[in-house]
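Most newcomers find our protein records easier to grasp once they have seen one. Sequence and backbone structure share a record, each on its own labelled line. To make this concrete, we reproduce a full record directly below:
***
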Amino acid sequence: MDMSAISAARGYASLRPATEPEAGTGAAGAFQALARDFAATLREGEEMARAAVTGDADPHALVQALAQTELAVEAAVTVRDRVVEAYQEILRMPV
């Protein structure tokens, strides 16, 4: 192995943290937290629906869980639409 290759590998390894944000920091961390909350809300709605089918859940709790799930999905769709809209606006900018 060439010494310059070893030096290049070490240099790359030292710069890698600069190119990959740490988990839980900045915008990436906020997005990860939102994604986890969204998934948890969907999971709770599914679990409540399963419990309602078997008769283990209160119908009021099922309706509440489904309403929360619906709000989470609507919020995610709204965010997605705004991101796509912003991307399309960037594409339309003159160079």
Summary: The radius of gyration is 22 Å. The chain has a mean pLDDT of 83. Residues 24 and 33 are 8 Å apart (CA to CA). Residues 22-92 form one domain.
